Amino acid sequence: MISSLRGMNDILEEDYERFTYFINTATKIAQNYGFHFIQTPLLEETALFKRSVGESSDIVSKEMYQFIDKGENDVCLRPEGTAGVVRAFIQKKLDKAGGIHRFFYHGAMFRYERPQKGRLRQFHQFGVESFGVDSVYEDASMIMMVADILSACGIGYRLQLNSLGDLNCMPPYRENLINFVKNIEDKICEDCVRRVATNPIRVLDCKNPTCQELYEKAPKLINNLCSGCKDDFDILKKVLDDNSIAYEINTNLVRGLDYYSKTAFEFVSDEIGSQSAIAGGGRYDRLIEFLDGRPTPAVGFAMGIERLMELIQMPESKREGYYMGAMDDEAVDLVMSLAHKKRKTDKTTIDYKAKNLKNHLKGADKVNARFCCVIGTNEMENQTIWIKDLENKTEQTLSIEEF
RNA sequence: GUGGGAUUAGCUCAGUUGGUUAGAGCACUGGUUUGUGGUGCCGGGGGUCACGGGUUCGAGCCCCGCAUCCCACCCCA
Questions:
Q1: Residues A63-106 pLDDT 10s
Q2: CA of A362 to C1' of B27 (A)
Q3: In whole angstroms, what separates CA A168 from the centre of its chain?
Q4: Would you say the C-beta of A129 is within 7 Å of strand B?
Q5: What is the C-alpha separation between A376 and A401, in angstroms, rounded?
Q6: CA→C1' distance for A273 and B70 (Å)
């Protein structure tokens, strides 16, 4: 038997119902916020991710499905969604056109990681990207949108917030931090030593308790923001307060992708194990110019659909549509024709085998049909059809023309 | 990539110190004497015990390998 590749799952039946329900709910909300759907290719030039996500990130340095295609192009399956959307935005010259452009997307992402609960090699994200709005109110809108989507799905969460600063305050802070860490380099873990060289800010996010203790005395970016960043962060907090969205400031929150600046946020769940981040995002004002576009402010987020799946509270499934069956073999053809007509407007399932009434009622129950419609000898004689409403338990007999 | 645990029917799981033909519940399917369901009763099908080796008179059970899943690290959605 050939089975699916490690970390790559089929989505069907109950899972598919939940998956679709989430996409539909999130789509509606994104549209309410003025976003439009965008679809970009699953395969992109490798250079796109190296330049956007950053070569120092684990995603690019060891997790990409990368290969050379038959045209000798260095390509890879997308490990995240933002890079492709930004590429499309620039390629379509929307950066030069100016104005505001808001997109949402959903689809498969690929990362070659060791699978675990909530961590797959092929997984699905729902994300949005907003271009051309530098106001921090847009950042707030992003967070409100995630909160709306999660609430609509009945999902509980904690929201963590941080500011990563901008070109004015981040570089001096970075130097500051490097100096601090260099002084205690002999006490920190191996990973942190590596991080100082590749991406020093990420040491703050280290899970090692010894390191965490040491970093408690480290300078905090939140206390060293320039006035612009600080004002924006204050406004953001106020807007969230005004709209009753609870948050906690996590000065160690560092997004794993290199392109983020200023607002960074993460929604976590305490109910799904160690892979607890269910949504994450932030501002990335410099990414468009990194990818050769005209400088354009941007902010976005992504949600991991598989991680949300078991948290989604599905609405109660209601009886729907028709079930049709015959009690005599001679009636099967008539059932078939009536069902064909009915299917133009309603969900209709047919049982092709003649059965007694009891079994048809059981069958109708099984497919969760609202109406059980049966044709037997009596009905054939009178050219009628017997219908029972399984919800209200009422019955009627209609002529086949009326049906 | 590192460390640990698990794997028996479609699903959830029993299976004694290694000993006849591997079980249960649910699900599926048929019947319940020919017109009333979701909730009665009776029956039926379905297992290379993940896979590959080894030890043994004999392995679901012990040993080795391997695959997958789970947990933690790591990473991140």
A1: 999 999 999 999 999 999 999 999 999 999 999 999 999 999 99
A2: 15
A3: 33
A4: no
A5: 17
A6: 11
Q: Are residues A234 and A358 in the same domain?
A: no
Contact present, A208 and A191 (Cβ < 8 Å): yes
Strand B at less than 7 A from CB of A327? yes
The first and second tokens of residue A100, run together, are: 């505001």
Residue bearing tokens 């929150």: A253
Position A147: which residue type? A
Do A288 and A352 have their domain in common?
no
Residue type present at position A189? C
Amino acid residing at A166: D
- Residue A336 phi/psi, 5-degree rounding, is -60, -45
In a domain, A68, yes or no: yes
- For A209, counting Cβ atoms within 10 Å of its Cβ (0-12 exposed, 13-18 middle, 19+ buried), the class is exposed
From the CA of A197 to the C1' of B45: give the distance in Å: 64
- CATH number of the domain bearing residue A135: 3.30.930.10
pLDDT tens digits, one per residue of A135-167: 999 999 999 999 999 999 999 999 999 999 998
Is the ipTM value over 0.95, yes or no?
no
Give the helix ranges, DSSP H, for A33-161.
Answer: 46-49, 58-62, 82-91, 94-97, 136-152
Last residue in a domain, options A255, A280, A309: A309
